Amino acid sequence: MKATEIRQMSSAELEKKLTELKNELFNLRFQHAINQLDNPHRIADVKKDIARVMTVLREKKEA
Prior knowledge:
By secondary structure, the protein is an all-alpha fold. The protein has a single domain, classed as Orthogonal Bundle (Helix Hairpins). It has helices at residues 3-7, 11-33, 41-62. The protein starts with a helix and ends with a helix.
């Protein structure tokens, strides 16, 4: 997910996206623990997306 896409979202959409990403990260970690994960790099990608969403949310709350 690109930062420009994230910045165009509203705060409510960002909150929803953050919840979805956290659920996805949980599922990926679970799959990784039981050795069913095809692409382990996806975990890092989801973590970075979570950080991007949290950064934009913080910026919007400060503004």
